[in-house]
Amino acid sequence: MADEILYAVAESIATITLNRPERRNALNTALMEALGRRFEALERDTSVRAVVIRGAGTAFCSGRDLEEMSRRQDDGLEPEADVISLFQQIEASRHPTIAMVHGAAYAGGCELALHCDFRVAADLARFAMPLAKIGLVAPFALGQKLVEIVGPAFTRQILLTGQPVDARRAYEMGMVHAVVPAAELETATYELARTIAGNAPLSLAGMKAIIRRALSLRECLEHKDLDEVARHARASADAREGVRAMLEHRRPTFRGQ
């Protein structure tokens, strides 16, 4: 079995490649654990000054692996805790992070990009949070991140319609920092990475800490009631139907149950 992620360092820039192209880089447990271990190791690596996250194949990341999700719907575990913890780990990294988005960034893939410090997108890229299409509710921490990046108006558009937005529209919303032709994406991303890597590492770490402290009040918001709303939706018959329908490539029949 191929490695779930690939890793390389050049010019003080680390590149992490999600490496499940046959599954559109869907986030299964093995990939998320590998990504978490890599970021844990990066915290101790002072030779790295910036991190680029990219995807192998045609997609950046299609979100959670639905086949694994379907198998875990009856296991009684908290299925979102691992992905929330991982994304928060990436956001808290001492190193500036750049999501290089060349294709679809859907659901958890969109959130992975949002938890990076920068997002550079090819003009062919698309972003979506289609959770309502499979009967799920965005966990509070992930919905909160979307509001933080694009504001409540565009969050309503993205979450309540479930429809994808193209890279240009994502730029207009403030979701991405730059949109370039697909052929220029790698050049533009690594030019940004080299610019960041050329700055003083203590300054970079300190300013990331300032930004996080400025946003720290978000962590004080009570959301147990909303967690229960999300848990109830996740355990519903509609959620099971939504996941099955997606795997079977058909329209779901939702009954509000």
Q: Tally the beta strands.
A: 9
DSSP strand (E) fraction? Answer: 15-25%
Helical fraction: 40-55%
* Main pleated sheet: 6 strands, mixed
For the residues shown, what is the average pLDDT? 93
Shape: globular
CATH fold-level name of the domain at 5-182:
2-enoyl-CoA Hydratase, Chain A, domain 1
Helix tally? Answer: 10
The topology string of helices and strands comes to: EEHEHHEEHEEHEHEHHHH
Q: Uncertain segments of ≥5 residues (pLDDT<50)?
A: none
CATH superfamily (homologous) name of the domain at 5-182: 2-enoyl-CoA Hydratase, Chain A, domain 1
The CATH architecture designation of the domain at 5-182 is: Alpha-Beta Complex
How widely separated are the two ends?
Answer: 39 Å
Strand pairing plus helix content: what structural class? alpha/beta
Side-by-side strand order of the widest sheet: 1-2-3-4-6-9
User: What's the CATH C level of the domain at 5-182?
Assistant: Alpha Beta
Radius of gyration based on Cα positions: 18 Å
Protein architecture, described:
The protein has helices at residues 29-42, 66-72, 81-91, 108-114, 140-161, 167-173, 185-197, 201-214, 224-234, 237-248; strands at residues 5-10, 13-18, 50-55, 97-101, 104-106, 118-122, 126-128, 165-166, 178-180. With 257 residues, the chain is an alpha/beta fold. The chain has a domain at 5-182: 2-enoyl-CoA Hydratase, Chain A, domain 1. Helix 1 (29-42) runs parallel beside helix 3 (81-91) and helix 2 (66-72) runs antiparallel to helix 10 (237-248). The chain is globular, with a radius of gyration of 18 Å.
